[in-house]
Specification:
It contains six helices and two strands. By secondary structure, the protein is mostly helical. It has one domain: Winged helix-like DNA-binding domain superfamily/Winged helix DNA-binding domain (Arc Repressor Mutant, subunit A, Orthogonal Bundle), CATH 1.10.10.10. Strand 1 and strand 2 form a beta hairpin. Helix 1 crosses helix 5 and helix 2 crosses helix 5. The longest helix has 22 residues. The radius of gyration is 18 Å and the shape is globular. It starts with 8 loop residues before the first helix and ends in a 5-residue tail after the last helix. The mean pLDDT is 92. This is MarR family transcriptional regulator. InterPro entries: HTH_MarR-typ, MarR/SlyA-like, WH-like_DNA-bd_sf, WH_DNA-bd_sf. Pfam families: MarR_2.
Amino acid sequence: MAEEGRPDLAAMLGGLVRRLMAAEEPVLAEHGLTMWGYVVLSALDDGPVRTQAALAQAIGADKTRIIGTLEALQDGGLIRREPDPADRRVRLLEITEAGRRARRSAQARIQEGEERLLAALSAADRAAFLRAARVLSERPAGA
């Protein structure tokens, strides 16, 4: 049962998410990344994403929408895109060491800012918040 008088989750979290994204933008710019570029590098660094189609599905983007981002990352030496030898219509993606360094450096700086925000919570509340955020973010859509 919902807590009476509680704002909707989107209302509570929307402002927080906008604030976090605004704090990330200058950090990403310092690393020569856009928000989508950071999302792509994170997906490639964290998992076994191999094709453009699999990447698009993993990050919830249309595969044609990310082509410009992929080209910019490739031009910057942050990813490699190679034709699949088994199907030349398919592009295989791989993060480069430079891409891995850029992503991890940006992530460390972003998380430094998050730590300042989380410092407003007690240790127990911080742990509970992070645990709840992880559980809810990992739930499949519609679950």
